[in-house]
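Hi C.,

You asked whether I'd gotten around to modeling the 221-residue construct. I have! Everything is below, sequence then structure, no commentary in between.
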Amino acid sequence: MTFQRARTEEQREIRRRAILDAASAMLDEMPVAAVTLNELSRRVGLAKPNVLRYFESREAVLLELLNRYLQEWLTDLAGELAAGVDENLPMAERAAAVAEILSRSISRRVVMCDLFGAQVSVLEHNVSVEVVTRYKRASLERLTTMTALIEKYLPELGGDATLFSLQTMVMAGALSAYSTPPPSLLAAYEAAPDLAPLHLSMKDHLRQALTAILLGVLPRG
């Protein structure tokens, strides 16, 4: 793909989308750490300085992608919760259903979890105050949306719904590193079954953790 110089806002937006789409395709093939501006520039058909006209750094591209993934996920999550949680069930059963749906929904989005796991240690570095502030404001909007979804099905959480939503994503980001080990570690797990407790399954362990949090926080009786 090659581009002529963008002269209108519509053309500039087309370039931005093309850069994001190319980065998204790269993340389907490689880990976050392997995504480089040089390769991104080659794939999108723009010189590296031209890519930097639209995004100030590799990290700025990936932060924007993470926000896109979170938006798409929350849209899907709303439908999944509506289809899978009966609001008339007792609190404990609703909590179990919410934990199951969250863990299943999140575990299917491996790239989103990898990006979230890299957010603090990688993605929020090498970006300007303006970029990181814009991303954090978008993150607050995503958090507000998720909190409202959780409160709808577990109103008993009250003010703890925001903290629970944030904890859910932090755990998902942390578990992503453990649930997708490199080939050498996979071989080690296969050769040494006693190491199995260290090989964490994203869906199962996230569901267990979320269920434990909810049953520990929600009121009894």
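If it helps when you're writing up: The mean pLDDT is 91.

Thanks,
B.
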